[in-house]
């Protein structure tokens, strides 16, 4: 049984993840909408103290299966501070390291000392945001690293010996034609990472790129984007990277289990400013402000933003939407057993229409998967399911 249909962790309970948002960043990339702030000595010290306090507010209910540090740029922390944060996580996990522990890093912040500190606390997976190997495109994104830094950082990560290494690449960038994207893909493949994430550029509100879009300085081109999607899927498959989600590809044994568990609507606890949680019957996020988060934690409050009760109907809807984004697809019968309160009559109607229009297909074992055409419009499919199941 797949995790999307109700799988369990190796300990017998449903999986539990832990996410830590490290908000510090040296600069803001033009496309980035994640909460971030400039690092200061006092800011980092207060962050670590508040993480320790916040962890006392959420007693660990069972074994933690996966950990993920995102940002911001977690790699901006000093080796000593990375070690301290790692110790806090280990303590929360009961003194043992989880089976998978991922950390995002930017090429410019990768040093041997930082990597050693991460390896020493139990980190198993590094995800490096390369985005592009072409200086002009990196500049268009506002990225603060060079081609040389990407290669040097990757060599250092491999030398330290992490179990899995991922690189992030972006396509449909301003000024990026088909040949430029294929060149980036080839250079990424030449590094031979264990996992590759490829993201189509999106224009999030309150970003510099959103402003450029609203001013007409950059334009959307859905047909161009669809072509790049298909080229990506074909090239990575030929290179031995199996697609397991719309934007994610891995060699055998290197899928990101933390993300799989999240997409499968299992539980995770988020610590740090803006960190989201789905735990103990509630979904919500910490405030996207370092000082406000610290103030709330100091008085025993967390997850105060966008707080909603996790009803079985909501979980059923989200499990179907995110499950269809994964290449394994979903077993509607198993999902209905797991979330019996879902609007399954409406869901079956949508699935039937998707199959009739060849956006999805049903296998002999009853699983429903999006076809290549369906994955190209996965966001629209999700919207249709949401409308039907929440009506």
From TrEMBL:
Pfam families: HemN_C (PF06969), Radical_SAM (PF04055). Its cofactor is [4Fe-4S] cluster. Belongs to the anaerobic coproporphyrinogen-III oxidase family. HemW subfamily. InterPro entries: Aldolase_TIM (IPR013785), Coproporphyrinogen-III_oxidase (IPR034505), Elp3/MiaA/NifB-like_rSAM (IPR006638), HemN_C (IPR010723), HemW-like (IPR004559), rSAM (IPR007197), rSAM_sf (IPR058240). It is found in: Cytoplasm. Probably acts as a heme chaperone, transferring heme to an unknown acceptor. Binds one molecule of heme per monomer, possibly covalently. Binds 1 [4Fe-4S] cluster. The cluster is coordinated with 3 cysteines and an exchangeable S-adenosyl-L-methionine. This is Heme chaperone HemW. The keyword tRNA-binding does not apply. Transmembrane segments: none annotated. Residues 10-242 form the Radical SAM core domain. It comes from the Bacteria. PROSITE patterns: RADICAL_SAM.
């Amino acid at each position: 049984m797949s995790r999307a249909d109700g799988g369990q962790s190796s300990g017998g309970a449903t999986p539990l993840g832990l996410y830590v948002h490290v908000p510090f960043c040296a600069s803001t990339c033009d496309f980035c909408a994640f909460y971030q702030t400039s690092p200061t000595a006092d800011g980092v010290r207060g962050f670590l103290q508040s993480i320790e306090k916040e962890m006392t507010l959420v007693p660990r209910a069972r074994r933690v299966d996966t950990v993920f540090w995102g940002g911001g740029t977690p790699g901006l922390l000093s080796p000593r501070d990375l070690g301290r944060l790692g110790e806090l996580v280990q303590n929360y996990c009961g003194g043992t390291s989880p089976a998978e522990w991922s950390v995002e890093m930017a090429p410019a912040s990768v040093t041997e000392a930082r990597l050693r500190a991460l390896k020493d606390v139990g980190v198993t997976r590094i995800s490096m945001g390369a985005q592009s190997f072409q200086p002009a495109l990196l500049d268009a994104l506002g990225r603060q690293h060079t081609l040389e830094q990407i290669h040097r950082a990757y060599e250092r990560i491999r030398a330290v010996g992490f179990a899995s290494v991922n690189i992030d690449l972006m396509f449909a960038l301003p000024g990026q034609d088909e040949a430029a994207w294929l060149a980036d893909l080839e250079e990424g493949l030449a590094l031979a990472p264990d996992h590759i994430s490829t993201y189509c550029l999106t224009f999030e509100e309150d970003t510099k790129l959103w402003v450029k879009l609203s001013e007409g300085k950059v334009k959307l081109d859905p047909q161009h984007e669809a072509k790049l999607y298909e080229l990506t899927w074909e090239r990575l498959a030929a290179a031995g990277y199996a697609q397991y989600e719309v934007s994610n590809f891995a060699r055998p044994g290197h899928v990101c289990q933390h993300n799989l568990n999240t997409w499968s609507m299992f539980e995770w606890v988020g610590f740090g400013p803006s960190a989201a949680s789905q735990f103990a019957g509630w979904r919500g996020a910490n405030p996207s402000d370092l000082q406000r988060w610290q103030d709330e934690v100091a008085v025993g409050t967390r997850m105060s933003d966008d707080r909603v009760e996790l009803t079985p109907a909501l979980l059923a809807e989200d499990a179907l939407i995110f499950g269809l984004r994964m290449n394994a697809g979903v077993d509607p019968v198993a999902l209905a057993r797991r979330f019996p309160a879902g609007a399954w009559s409406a869901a079956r109607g949508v699935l039937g229409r998707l199959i009739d229009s060849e956006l999805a297909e049903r296998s002999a074992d009853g699983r429903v998967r999006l076809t290549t055409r369906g994955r190209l419009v996965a966001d629209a499919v999700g919207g249709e399911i949401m409308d039907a199941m929440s009506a």
